[in-house]
Sequence to fold (467 residues):
Amino acid sequence: MRRPILVLLVLIPFLVLVVAVGWRLSPLLSYGSYQSQVLPPPRFGDITVPLATPQPFTDSFDMRKGILLVDRAHDNRFALDELSPLAQRLLSRAYTLDYWQEEDSLAAKLRRADALAVVLPHEPFTDSQRQRVRDFVAQGGKLLLMGDPTRPGEISSLAAEFGLVFHPDYLYNLRENDGNFRYIFVRDFEEHQLTRGLEQINLYTAGSITGGRGLATTDAYTYSDTRGAQGYFTPVALAAGEQVLALGDFTFLTVPHSSLADNDLFLSRIADWLTVSQRRFSLAQFPYFFPGDVRVEMVDAEAVAEAIRLRNLLEGAGREAEVTDFQTETGGDRLVLGLFKDAEEVGDLLDRAGIEVTVKEEEEAEEPTPNGEPEAAAEEEPPVRRPPPLEEDEEEEPEFLLRIEGVGEVPGEGTALLWLDPRPQGRLLLVLADSEEGLRAAVAVLEAGEVGDWLVRPDLAVYRSGG
Fold:
């Protein structure tokens, strides 16, 4: 009997507690189940963000024919259509775009290029590639380098050759931006043709660059996410005697960002900088040192067959060419063909080249006198200087003697001269040989792309048959 009584004594207080709690909660439970309120969908059109708006822009430029070579050999992390704004500016200035693919020879591609663009390379440049690009810039070629922290890669593997470092950071500004802290404004510019007229450019994924000459600087409230510093970073820089332009942001050149603030104007300034190339070509770059139309001029009609061959070669390289007679007073790009016997007609060109051609006159046979003795000359002629023979055991003397500034004397027999005058108002290539056969051999050297093997100066090749 005691066990049931103990159970009741324990259960009765518990049941009293349950009843008391239930009574207290009964008003809440009497309302039934919860019904959620139906809300209208958000009206995103009513949300306003202080974004930049496209600015009207009219481009103005000069026409300059040339070629921009674009690197596609390093797994570059961009699509070709992203380059459209820059490509359109270049095409409007009469420039064309060429592409360096992985299977291409860089040396062959650079032979014809006026400028090179390296954009977001993912693979590093090799030692030989870096040397080729250094030589290209040293000859006056322009180099555009573009990095972007959102697409990391190996841009510094080439930039370091010119004292530039693309840092793997991104710049941000929490105080003033274009709707995102990484969309920064840049308003501080160095005076330069590239920055002329700029008041503000908007950069959207910019990293910082050190080295060279900074052209644009961020404000004091800009930070770097990796360098642990605040303010005054450089996302735009020049190096190598202003032949190399480095940009720490690629996105601002793409649609629609290229039309915001003064980005359009800056894009045009970049196109102008690229197309004002001061590249110094050597004969090794034939025929690409001719930017456009070329006249192939014959000093002697005997050169007509070779003139036609060269016209076909130029047209195959994308140049317009026509064959004409030699013109002493003329401008434009020219390729002049002749023989050493025509040296007097092209004397002005030879003087500019620092070359003297001495043509040996044929001696007339002496008429015997009635007594069988040759008639004595009334006045003794000065002795004719005879050049040494080609080989010690060769009896026949050369017909011509060439005196070349910086080289010395060269026998004319079996020789052809190829001289480049690279003046920007009209480039000229002069090809002279001792004979028609020698002229054919010189043209064959040009066709084979082997003229660089015969250079004695950057502007002069001396081809020796059998040499």
